Amino acid sequence: MEILHTAAELQARAEMWRREGRRIGLVPTMGALHEGHLQLVRAAARECNVVVATIFVNPTQFNNADDFRLYPRLPEADAALLAPAGCTALFLPTVEQMYPQPTVLRFDFGPLERVMEGAHRPGHFNGVATIVSKLFHLSCPHRAYFGQKDLQQVAIVRQLVADLSFDLKLVAFPTVREADGLAMSSRNRRLDAAARAVAPRLYQGLQLAEELVRAGQATPSAVQTAAAGFVAAEPQITLEYFEVADAHTLQPLTEWQPGRPVALCLAAHLGGVRLIDNVVVS
Ligand code: AMP
C-alpha cells in the first residue's frame, strides 16, 4: 500500500490507473478506523482493482470546535489496518493540501439538509459536499463507498452525484455494530466506561421503534414519543432528536405512506460525546 500526501500525487495516480483500465474504488473516511470502515474497504477490494482510502479530518464539516479538536487521530494505526483489508493507496492530505484557499462555493440541498444533521449542525453538509466533491475530482473513482450509519450523508452525496453528473456508482453499505448493538463509530473511543455501558440504549430505542412500526402503531408521532421516551429515560443520555421520517426524502412523517420505507434516526449526547444512529424499516 502506498501513502499519498498531495492532491497532485493522487490525481496523477488516478490518471494512470484510468489509462491502465483499472476500476477505482474510493472509501473516504476521517480515520480512527474501526471494523465499519474496514468492511467498506473490503467491499471496495472485492469490486474494484484499485482501492483508495482517504483519511482527512475535514475542518469545514465540523460546527463544534471541541469536536474537531478532540476527534481521534491515529494515522499510523490506521495505515496498518488498511493494507491487510485490501487498500492499494492511502490518501493522507494536510488541510493546506485540501484547502489551498478558503472555499467560496456554497451548497444548498434544500429540504434534504433542513432536517436532522443538517438542521442541528449548521454548515455540516456544505463541508461534506465540498470535501467529497474534491475527493471525487482527485481520485476519479468508478465506485465510492459510504456507510448507511450516516444515512443523511448518503442521501446528500447521492444528490451531489446526480446534480453534478459525477460518473460513478455510489455504494451504500449497511451499518456495522458492536456485539451489544452500538453502531461502530470513531467517536465511541471517546466514551468513558459509564457512557459506554449505557450507549447500547440508542440502538435499543431504534429497535423498539422498528417493532412499533412493524406492529402497525397508529401514527409516526406515537412511535416517536414512545421510542424517544425510552432512550431519554436513561439519565446519562441527552437526546438531541429522534425522527420518524420518509427514508428517501428524510422528511418527518405525519402519517404512514404505504409501501415507502421508514427511516428511524437519532442523535444523542453521552458523557460529552455526540453519537448518531438509524434503522430503515422497509
Ligand atoms: P467517518 O470516518 O466516520 O467519516 O466514516 C467514513 C465512512 O465510513 C462513512 O461513509 C461512514 O458512513 C462509514 N461508517 C462509519 N461508521 C460505520 C459503521 N458502523 N458501519 C458502516 N459504515 C460506517
Could you walk me through the main structural features you see in this protein, from its secondary elements to its overall organization?
The protein folds into 2 domains: 2-173, Rossmann fold (3-Layer(aba) Sandwich); 186-275, 2-Layer Sandwich (Pantoate--beta-alanine Ligase, Chain: A,domain 2), CATH 3.30.1300.10. 41% of the residues lie in helices and 20% in strands. It contains 11 helices and 9 strands. The protein has helices at residues 7-19, 35-47, 65-70, 75-85, 95-98, 116-120, 124-139, 151-163, 193-198, 200-214, 220-232, and strands at residues 2-4, 24-29, 50-55, 89-91, 143-147, 169-173, 237-246, 262-270, 273-281. The strands form 2 sheets. It has a 6-stranded parallel sheet, sandwiched between helices. Strands 7-8-9 form a 3-stranded antiparallel sheet. Helix 7 crosses helix 8 (151-163). Adenosine monophosphate is lined by residues 29-30, 36-37, 40, 146-147, 149-150, 173, 175-176, 183-186.
